[in-house]
Structure formats: C-alpha cells, structure tokens
Design brief:
The protein is mainly α. It has helices at 3-23, 31-38, 43-64, 77-91, 114-124, 143-155, 160-166, 191-200, 228-236, and strands at residues 108-109, 129-133, 136-141, 182-186, 206-210, 221-224.
Length: 240
C-alpha cells in the first residue's frame, strides 16, 4: 500500500480507537455512526464532522478494494495531512493551560467591599475575579453582575455610596451561579473539553482552573467565553 494510503489509514484507526475508548462505543458501530454520536461531546469531531464522514468513505474504498500492489484510491497529500491533524486533536488534544488560559489570576476575599472590588477592576483591568472564603472558591464576580446589583439597588432608592462602601462583595454572589455561569476544572482540561463545556452550558461565562479542579485550591488559570475564538483558531491551525 502506498505511503499516503498507509498514513491515512493509520490516522483513521487512531480516531476510531480513541472514540471507542473514550465513549465506550461497541465494536460493531460504524465509524460514521460514531462520528455522528460524538458531535455533542467532542468539539473537534463537531468541527470536522462532514469531512470525517467523507473520509470514512475514502477509507472504505482503500481498504476494501486494495492490496499491497494495487490501491484503488490514493489520498491527496492535503487530505492525509488533515486526517493526521484531526487524529492528533482527537487522541492528544492540547491542554488549555498550555495555550489559552490566563495564568495571572487575581482573587479577592469574600469580605472585600463592593467599592474596593469596583476600584480593583478599574485599576487592574481584571474583569473576572474569583472570590474566596477561608481558602475556598465561593464565586466569581464580574462587572455585569455588579451593574445588575447596583441597578437593582438604585431602583429602590438605596444609598449607593453607603451600600458599596459597607457591603461585602460576597452578597452579590448567587448559589446557582455554580455550574451555570462558572465552573471549576483541573489543569488537565483540554481545549476540546473547554469548548464542549461552553457548547453544552450556554450560560457558562468562566472556567476556573486549579491544579486538581478542587474548590479548596487557588486558581492557576482562567478561561472565559471570549476565548472561544482563540480556541477555534488553535484547533484550525494545529500543527501535525
């Protein structure tokens, strides 16, 4: 079999084996069916769904109609390189901490006043700030949440100057924010997994990264919904 055909089949097999292993697909499930079922769980498969199904047909043409001396379909070099790229993205996706995550993370204590929080956002430019109480992550604050809170207080005639000076920022946090607007994951989070989180959790704004994905650990990185474009670029330009 030709070099290109061999490289193509090897990459196909890597994708096939990885998806079966990760998602527990049965051996009798076709490659195309696996691709369709993986779309909702895998950002890379979702991005290349149509091409992978087309490439499955090419693979069948090569395998079922070829022998060592005769190949009925010879993959183009560009197709082979793309298949190899997809195989690497599926089997060894890049870690979010090695690329996208912002590692300079600012945190505030739960008793920090709203005034001090607003001043800190203005002075530092940090717009997403994890809030900790006794070493535990209790929420994430951002300008949008602060504006909503202040707007509500103004509408009922609250003395805003007194309110922001004497109210801890933790009062702005909501229990249902956890896993709705933010979640916590370990440093092993891949770009594909991060994209899947934003895809499945439509209201998700922030992923807080800690060494083991533990609420009792300090953050080592932050990923926001605004980073999705950069994540797409990395997947698009991932080098073989």
């Amino acid at each position: 079999m030709s070099t290109n055909a061999t490289r193509f089949i090897n990459s196909y097999n890597v994708i096939d084996q990885t998806l079966r292993s990760v998602h527990g697909f049965k051996r009798n499930m076709t490659f195309s069916d696996m691709i369709r079922r993986s779309v909702s769980h895998n950002a890379v498969v979702r991005k290349y769904e149509d091409k992978l199904i087309d490439y499955a047909r090419l693979r069948n043409a090569i395998v079922h109609n070829s022998n060592e001396n005769r190949v009925i379909a010879e993959p183009h070099q560009r197709v082979v390189e793309e298949m190899e790229k997809i195989a690497r993205l599926v089997s060894t996706p890049p870690l979010i901490m090695n690329s996208i995550a912002k590692k300079n993370v600012l945190i505030l204590g739960h008793n920090t006043s709203i005034r001090k929080t607003i001043e800190t956002i203005g002075e530092t430019g940090f717009r997403t700030i994890p809030i900790y109480k006794d070493g535990m992550l209790v929420g994430v604050i951002n300008p949008n949440r602060l504006i909503d809170e202040l707007g509500a207080k103004i509408s009922v005639g609250t003395d805003i100057n007194d309110y922001i000076s004497n109210t801890p920022v933790s009062t702005v946090l909501r229990e249902d924010d956890i896993n709705t607007y933010y979640c916590i994951r370990s440093e092993k989070l891949t770009i594909q997994e991060a994209m899947d989180l934003f895809f499945t959790k439509r209201k998700l704004q922030v992923i807080v990264i800690t060494p083991q994905g533990n609420y009792l650990q300090s953050p080592t990185g932050i990923v926001t919904a605004a980073d999705i474009i950069d994540m797409n670029d990395i997947i698009e330009n991932y080098a073989v």
